[in-house]
TrEMBL record:
Keyword NAD: yes
Start and end residues of each FAD/NAD(P)-binding domain: 4-328
Domain Pyridine nucleotide-disulphide oxidoreductase dimerisation per the UniProt entry, residue ranges: 347-456
Miscellaneous note of the record: The active site is a redox-active disulfide bond.
Protein name stated in the entry: Dihydrolipoyl dehydrogenase
Source organism of the structure: Pseudomonas cuatrocienegasensis
Cofactor annotation remark: Binds 1 FAD per subunit.
Compartments in which it is found: Cytoplasm
A Pfam family recorded for this sequence: Pyr_redox_dim
Domain of life: Bacteria
C-alpha cells in the first residue's frame, strides 16, 4: 500500500492543475489517469483540437470565401483535410506532453490506470498490465470529468452518427451535416464543417440557441451564423435515426408535437450536452451518491465524506476548463489549510464562432428575474475603428451596471476577439469596479479594446464615438 498526502483521480484541467498545485505546495501527490495521455477532454478531444480546427477553417474560409479578395489577396486554395487533421493532432500531442513535463517539474507522480474508491482514504488502480495497485491518502480529489449525453433513438456510432470526438476527426467534409443541439459545442463544430464546405443544419429542441446566454446576444449570434449559411430548425425534436451506408435519415417534428418529417444527412453530430462521468468509480464504497443527472454534490468542493473532494465537470457549475482549473487551485489550497474561494460570479464563457461571443456575470434576463435595477451601455463594433478597418464590424459590447451603485454586473460581447477582450471585464468585476472606472481608463488606439471603454461610457450616456 503506497501512501500519499493527496490522490487525484482524473488528469484533465481539474485533475492536472490540482496535481501541479499540490506539488508546488510540497504535498506528496499522485494523479491517476487511465487514458494514454494526460489533459483530459480539454486537451485531447475538447477545447484544444476544436480550436485548432476553428483556427484553420477560419483561415480557409477567409481565403475561399471572399475575405482575402476584399483585402487584395488573390490565391487559389485547396483543402488538404488530412494535413489539417495532422497539424491538430501534433499540437494536441505537444500539449499533452507538456503536462507530463509539468508533472515531472512539480514532482507529481502519474499513475497510469483507472482509479476506484475502495473505502475511506483508499483507492485501487487497475493498471494496463491487468494488475491492481492499492493506494491510500489523507485527501482524495475526484476530477473524473464528463462525457457526451446520449440521445435516445439516435445511437452514436462515430461512423455516421457522431459525438464531438467523432466530429473532430472526420475523414471527409460532409455534404450535409445535421447538428443536434444549438449549444456551444454544436455551433463551434458546425462552424468548422460549414467553413470547409458542408451544408449545416442545426436542430434544437428549444426555441432559441445557446440557452443561458444573454437573449440579445444569442439572437445576434443566430442572425450572423444564418447569414453565413448555417441553417436552424428551432423548437424541433429528433425522435429517431435510421442509418444506411451513405447517410442517416432523421425523424424530426415540432417540439410541441405535430407531423413528423424526414431530414437526410450524410453525417449527424449529437451535441445535446455532457453529463458527469463516475462509472466504475466505487462511490458506493464510501457511501457517496449522485443526483438524477449523475452529478456529485459538493459544499465548497467537499463531498459529504470527509477527505473526499470534488472538482470540475463531474460536479455542479459550468462545464468549462477554466472553471475546473479554478476549483482545482482552491481545492488544493484548502487541503493545504489555506483560505481560498472560487468566485463563480466572474467565470467567463466564450463561444469561438466568428464572430466570437464572450460573457461574464449576469444576463439582462437574470437581472430582470432578480428584480434588480440596472443600466445598459452598448457600443457597436461598426463604430470601432480597428474592427472597421479590418472589415470585422459585426457585433457589440454590452455592459450591465447596477442603477444605483454603477457596479458592473454583467458584460456580453459579440465581435472580433471577444474571448480575449472579456478578460478586462473579469478583472474589473473581480475588483468590484464600476462602469465609470472602465470609462476613465485610457485604452490603446486603434484596438478593439476601445469598444470596451466606449460601452462603459455609454452606461453614463456619454459614448463619444457612436
Ligand atoms: C468539443 C469540446 C470543446 C470544448 N471547448 C471548450 C473551450 O473552448 N473552453 C472550455 O473552457 N471548455 C471547453 N470544453 C469543456 C472542457 O473540455 C471541460 O470543461 C474540461 O475538460 C473539464 O475538465 P475536468 O478535469 O473536469 O474533466 P476532463 O477534462 O473530462 O478530465 C477527466 C479525466 O479523468 C479521467 N478519468 C475518468 N475516470 C477515471 C478513473 N476512474 N480513473 C482514472 N482516470 C479517470 C478521464 O480519462 C479524463 O482524462 C470543451 C469540451 C468539448 C467536448
Amino acid at each position: 500500500m503506497s501512501n500519499y498526502d493527496v490522490l487525484i483521480i482524473g488528469g484533465g484541467p481539474g485533475g492536472y492543475n490540482a496535481a501541479i498545485r499540490a506539488g508546488q505546495l510540497g504535498l506528496k501527490v499522485a494523479c491517476i489517469e487511465g487514458s494514454d495521455t494526460l489533459g483530459g477532454t480539454c486537451l485531447n478531444v475538447g477545447c484544444m483540437p476544436s480550436k485548432a480546427l476553428l483556427h484553420a477553417s477560419e483561415l480557409y474560409e477567409a481565403a475561399t470565401g471572399g475575405e482575402f479578395v476584399t483585402l487584395g489577396i488573390e490565391v487559389k486554395p485547396t483543402l488538404n483535410l488530412a494535413q489539417m487533421m495532422k497539424q491538430k493532432d501534433e499540437s494536441v500531442t505537444a500539449l499533452t506532453k507538456g503536462i507530463e513535463f509539468l508533472f515531472r517539474k512539480n514532482k507529481v507522480e502519474w499513475i497510469k490506470g483507472w482509479g476506484r474508491l475502495n473505502g475511506p482514504g483508499k483507492v485501487s488502480v487497475s493498471l494496463a498490465d491487468g494488475s491492481v495497485r492499492e493506494l491510500q491518502a489523507k485527501d482524495i480529489v475526484i476530477a473524473t470529468g464528463s462525457q457526451p449525453t446520449p440521445l435516445p433513438g439516435v445511437t452514436i456510432d462515430n461512423q455516421r452518427i457522431l459525438d464531438s470526438t467523432g466530429a473532430l476527426s472526420l475523414p471527409e467534409v460532409p455534404k450535409h451535416l445535421v447538428v443536434i443541439g444549438a449549444g456551444v459545442i454544436g455551433l463551434e463544430l458546425g462552424s468548422v464543417w460549414r467553413r470547409l464546405g458542408s451544408n449545416v443544419t442545426v436542430v434544437e429542441y428549444l426555441d432559441r440557441i445557446c440557452p443561458g446566454l444573454d437573449d440579445e446576444t444569442a439572437k445576434t449570434l443566430q442572425r450572423t451564423l444564418s447569414k453565413q449559411g448555417m441553417g436552424f430548425k428551432l423548437a424541433t425534436k429528433v425522435s429517431a435515426a435510421n442509418v444506411a451506408d451513405a447517410g442517416v435519415t432523421l425523424d424530426v417534428q415540432p417540439a410541441a408535437g405535430g407531423a413528423v418529417e424526414q431530414l437526410e444527412a450524410d453525417y449527424v453530430l449529437v451535441a445535446i450536452g455532457r453529463r458527469p462521468y463516475t462509472a466504475g468509480l466505487g462511490l458506493e464504497s464510501v457511501g457517496l451518491v449522485t443526483d438524477k443527472r449523475g452529478m456529485l454534490d459538493n459544499q465548497q468542493l467537499r463531498s459529504s465524506v470527509p477527505g473526499i473532494w470534488i472538482i470540475g465537470d463531474v460536479t455542479s457549475g459550468p462545464m468549462l476548463a477554466h472553471k475546473a482549473e479554478e476549483e482545482a487551485i482552491v481545492c488544493i489550497e484548502r487541503i493545504a489549510g489555506h483560505a481560498a474561494e472560487v468566485n463563480y460570479g466572474t467565470i467567463p464563457g466564450v463561444i469561438y464562432t466568428k464572430p466570437e461571443v464572450a460573457t461574464v456575470g449576469k444576463t439582462e434576463e437574470q437581472l430582470k428575474a432578480e428584480g434588480r435595477a440596472y443600466k445598459v451601455g452598448k457600443f457597436p463594433f461598426s463604430a470601432n475603428s480597428r474592427a472597421k478597418i479590418n472589415h470585422e464590424g459585426e457585433g457589440f459590447v454590452k455592459v450591465l451596471a447596477d442603477e444605483r451603485t454603477d457596479q458592473i454586473l454583467g458584460v456580453h460581447i459579440i465581435g472580433p476577439s471577444a474571448g480575449e477582450l472579456i478578460g478586462e471585464y473579469c478583472v474589473a468585476m473581480e475588483f468590484s469596479a464600476s462602469s465609470e472606472d472602465i470609462a476613465l481608463i485610457c485604452h490603446p488606439h486603434p484596438t478593439r479594446s476601445e469598444a470596451l471603454r466606449q460601452a462603459a461610457m455609454s452606461v453614463q450616456g456619454r459614448a463619444m464615438q457612436a
